[in-house]
């Protein structure tokens, strides 16, 4: 088949057609000076959007959190959910768990997980320039992002501590430079490990080398972020200005003795929705080489229809429990106004073509147009006169500058198009759905879009 080249005649025809339409000229005049997405905003949708909900959790967390220039949304969202029952029990008005604490240990564990994956793929005889190893060596090899099972791994191994006991550092809030250092060393170490495996190095030799390499990795992370204390003491005032003190205590003891009774990560399950015909509903999936803790739990995807995810989200919130979720945040999103609505942009009016929703959700996954990119928290739903959910309230982790002091509003239509994961308590999940977790998961390739990490 002959290739289709663009001739000068083609280009001249395109140009004449463009300038023959006055709307194109108007759109050009505006979009050449203003953000094209802002130009496409629907005034009608802005007028009709109200942050009022029929079912809302009893109390939302304070203060509004801000992950700043880092990809830690999955950590922030998890801790924002966990703090709600914790704050209620301790009768405190403002509280944050230390996001930096979990970030520190995830970064250490993630680097070790990567080095072990390099060994595993070398023993599989995967070529260094093959798709799998090339993917592992890509720019996201120590991504800040993560998924629910990964947060569970870190909490169960290292526990939790208040933010006051391990505050933010520069590299917590702006992780790019630290990550650049780590990526450079990890690629260097990957070469050394692959050479050792190819030479027939024993397990003992490989383990010794990884421990030596990880000593340097630990030093880099510790220099950039500080090292969390093995024990801490937490002092606080409750709502009645009564003084309390907890500790000295280890972070694991703190989680087990003071947090777990109010939010037990082992009682929460992550359900996903992947509508691709190749991935059946009612099946368990995992992704090759995805994780953060060697010996920790795998990322397991219990694939269910999106309507079930929305229903369980509604039941949880109506019962007073907030919901962690993962979505593709950037599509049909009016960022400043904090509106996630499939009708919030009228691209067809401005450009003469539509975008972002022209492909089905399944086809967007197939063609690289969609994946989970961000994690946040649902704190309210609104039901119409027939009891059908039509919008949801979202707690983000980008500070107070967007939406209603940091809270976003999402339509149920948007939920169905761009939400991929929710985490709810087991008590809300039907027994047949829970049984899916007992299956041997089908392994998806490392580059599958369902393995994308929320940032």
TrEMBL record:
A GO MF label: cysteine-type endopeptidase activity
A single cellular component GO annotation: cytoplasm
PROSITE patterns: THIOL_PROTEASE_CYS (PS00139)
Reaction(s) this enzyme catalyzes, per UniProt: Inactivates bleomycin B2 (a cytotoxic glycometallopeptide) by hydrolysis of a carboxyamide bond of beta-aminoalanine, but also shows general aminopeptidase activity. The specificity varies somewhat with source, but amino acid arylamides of Met, Leu and Ala are preferred
Keywords: Cytoplasm, Hydrolase, Protease, Thiol protease
Family matches, as Gene3D superfamilies: Cysteine proteinases
Active site annotation, chain numbering: 73, 374, 396
Enzyme category, top tier: hydrolase
Subcellular location(s) per record: Cytoplasm
GO term, biological process aspect, one: response to toxic substance
Principal subcellular localisation of the protein: cytoplasm
Keyword Hydrolase tagged: yes
Short name of any one Pfam family annotated for the protein: Peptidase_C1_2
Family, similarity comment: Belongs to the peptidase C1 family.
Protein name: Bleomycin hydrolase
Lineage of origin: Eukaryota, Metazoa, Ecdysozoa, Arthropoda, Hexapoda
């Amino acid at each position: 088949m002959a290739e289709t080249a663009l001739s000068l005649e083609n280009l001249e025809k395109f140009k004449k057609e463009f300038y023959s339409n006055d709307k194109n000229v108007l759109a050009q005049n505006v979009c050449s000076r203003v953000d094209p997405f802002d130009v496409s905003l629907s005034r009608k949708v802005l007028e009709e959007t109200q942050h009022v909900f029929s079912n809302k959790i009893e109390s939302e967390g304070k203060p509004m959190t801000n992950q700043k220039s880092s990809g830690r949304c999955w950590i922030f969202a998890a801790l924002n959910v966990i703090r709600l029952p914790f704050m209620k029990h301790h009768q405190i008005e403002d509280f944050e768990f230390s996001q930096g604490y979990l970030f520190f240990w995830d970064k250490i564990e993630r680097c070790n997980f990567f080095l072990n994956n390099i060994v595993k793929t070398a023993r599989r005889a995967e070529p260094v320039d093959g798709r799998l190893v090339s993917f592992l060596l890509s720019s996201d090899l120590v991504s800040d992002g993560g998924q629910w099972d990964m947060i569970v791994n870190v909490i169960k191994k290292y526990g939790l501590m208040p933010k006051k006991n391990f505050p933010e550092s520069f590299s917590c809030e702006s992780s790019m430079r630290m990550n650049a250092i780590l990526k450079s060393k990890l690629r260097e170490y990957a070469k050394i490990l692959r050479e050792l495996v190819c030479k027939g190095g024993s397990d003992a030799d490989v383990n010794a080398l990884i421990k030596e390499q990880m000593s340097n990795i630990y030093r880099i992370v510790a220099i950039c972020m500080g090292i969390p204390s093995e024990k801490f003491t937490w002092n606080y005032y409750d709502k009645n200005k009564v003084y309390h003190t907890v500790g000295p205590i280890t972070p694991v003891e703190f989680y087990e003795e003071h947090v777990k009774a109010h939010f037990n990560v082992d009682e929460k399950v992550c359900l996903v929705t992947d509508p691709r015909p190749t991935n059946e509903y009612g099946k368990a999936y995992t992704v090759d080489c995805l994780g953060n803790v060697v010996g920790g739990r795998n990322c397991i995807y219990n694939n269910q229809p999106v309507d079930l995810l929305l229903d369980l989200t509604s039941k949880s919130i109506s019962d007073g429990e907030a919901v962690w979720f993962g979505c593709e945040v950037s599509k049909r999103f009016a960022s400043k106004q904090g509106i996630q609505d499939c009708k919030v942009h009228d691209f067809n009016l401005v450009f003469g073509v539509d975008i972002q929703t022209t492909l089905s959700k399944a086809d967007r996954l197939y063609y690289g147009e969609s994946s989970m990119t961000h994690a946040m928290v649902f704190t309210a739903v609104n039901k119409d006169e027939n009891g059908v959910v039509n919008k949801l309230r979202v707690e983000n982790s980008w500070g107070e500058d967007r939406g209603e002091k940091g809270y976003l509003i999402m339509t149920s239509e948007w939920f169905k198009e761009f939400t991929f994961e929710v985490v709810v308590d087991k008590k809300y999940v039907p027994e047949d759905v829970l049984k899916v977790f007992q299956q041997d998961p089908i392994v998806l390739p490392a580059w599958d879009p369902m393995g994308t990490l929320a940032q």
